[in-house]
Each structure stands twice: as structure tokens, then as C-alpha cells.
Amino acid sequence: MHPVTTVTGTAYPWGAKNIDTDVIIPAHWLKTIQRSGLGKGAFETVRAQPDNIFDDPRYAGAPILIAGDNFGCGSSREHAAWALADMGIRAVIAPSFSDIFSGNAFKNGIVPVVLPQEAVDRLLAAAVDQPVTVDLETMTVTTPYQDRFPFDLDPFRRQCLMEGLDEIGLTLARDTAISKFEGGMNADRPWIEERRGYAGIAVEGAGRT
Predict the structure, then answer these.
(1) pTM
(2) Cβ–Cβ under 8 Å, residues 27 and 45
(3) What percent of the chain has pLDDT over 70?
(4) Rounded-to-integer distance, Cα 114 and Cα 103, Å
(5) pLDDT band for position 188 (50/70/90)?
(6) Can you tell me the distance from the alpha carbon of 120 to that of 127, in angstroms, rounded to the nearest whole number?
């Protein structure tokens, strides 16, 4: 996962409410476990409509999506976060998120920013012709119009995003402590390692006559 400290650029001023994960990435795209390539299927049903915002050249490659209340509801498919990341989205701003989607976004390096509806409405208007900045250092969303909206984020999640640490990265970062614990446990409780050895012998000898 790449570190995220600041996300700045054009934002999709969408604002649609109750967008479920099937709208973000339709079910027929769930056959793959590859994270790359899903951006092509993101918002497929929306893109089938003429003059949709996701195919508007003014917002091409936008790293920020401004959405409405209850974004990411529906199924728990992590493919929704994968699809957003693959299309270049690094932050989503909305009044509220589905808890599962918010967790999946965080695990995939996407910043879920919760702001009051009034602030979202203002950003929707500003994003039509101005860039938006999401800053994890100052915990603010700003625009060139001097808009400045503070937001909250779980400190642990904020640290992981800024350091680019997913669950695997967190484990690897503690490799020394884990190895030390394992070594101490083997010394203090040698019978555990002995039982592992016996289990290995049993498996190795299984099926022999």
C-alpha cells in the first residue's frame, strides 16, 4: 500500500446518495481476485448513461470523489474499494459511509472523509472548477476559495494510511518483536515445540505399512 499524506486535484462532484457496492462495481466483475483492471468496470451502470460525470473530460483521472450520504452500502465486497483505487480514487468525501466499505477503503489506501452535508454541498459547488485537497497532516479538506473543513479519522487508521501499512505491512513491521516472542516461548515452553515435532513425525509416517 502506498503512503497517503495529501490527496489533491480535481474531484468528481457527484453527490449521489445511497450508492451501494453493486453500483460501484457490478456483480459480474467479482469473478476475479486481481485488483488491477477493475477500474474499467467501476460505475458501469452510471457510465452507460449519456453525459455521465465519470466520462466527463473535465474530471478525467480525478483522485477525489465527492458523494452523498450512506456511500458504499450493500454487500461487503472488497472489489468496490479495489475498483475505486484502480480508477485512481485516493479519497472519498461523503456525509457518511457504510462501516464495511469504510474499512475496506482504509485497507486499500483510500481515505474515507466524513463531513457534514453543508460542507459536502459547498465542496460539490467548488469542485466544478477548482481542485480539492485532503490533508492528513492537518486533517482538513481545503479549496482555493479558502474553504477549510476539519474532519476526524481514527488515529490508528490515519497512521497506517500515512505510513502505507496494510495488515501484512503491520505484521512485517513487527517481525523483530514477533521473532523475539517466538524464541522466548520456545525456550520457556519447549514441550510445545516437541509436540510440533511429534505431529510432523505422525504426518510424515501416515499411510505407511
Answers:
(1) 0.82
(2) no
(3) 87
(4) 13
(5) confident
(6) 10
Q: Which region holds residue 208: left if phi is over 0, alpha if psi is between -120 and 50, else beta?
A: beta
Q: Furthest-apart CA pair in the chain: how many Å? A: 81
C-alpha closest to that of 68 among 21, 17, 119: 17
- Pure H helices in the chain: 21-24, 44-47, 79-86, 99-107, 117-126, 155-163, 167-173, 175-188, 190-205
Contact 36, 86 (CB under 8 A): yes
Task: Report the C-alpha gap between 43 and 75 in whole angstroms.
Answer: 15
SS (HEC) of 22-74: HHHCCHHHCCCCCCCCHHHHCCHHHHCCCCCHHHCHHHCCCCEEECCCCECEC
By three-state DSSP, how is residue 124 classified?
helix
What is the phi-psi region of residue 128: left when phi exceeds 0, alpha when psi lies from -120 to 50, beta otherwise? alpha
Distance between CA atoms of residues 174 and 7, nearest Å? 28
Rounding to the nearest 10 degrees, give the CA dihedral for residues 50, 51, 54, 55: 90
**β 91-94/111-114 pair status:** parallel
Looking at residue 94, what DSSP letter applies?
E
The one-character DSSP state at 134 is E
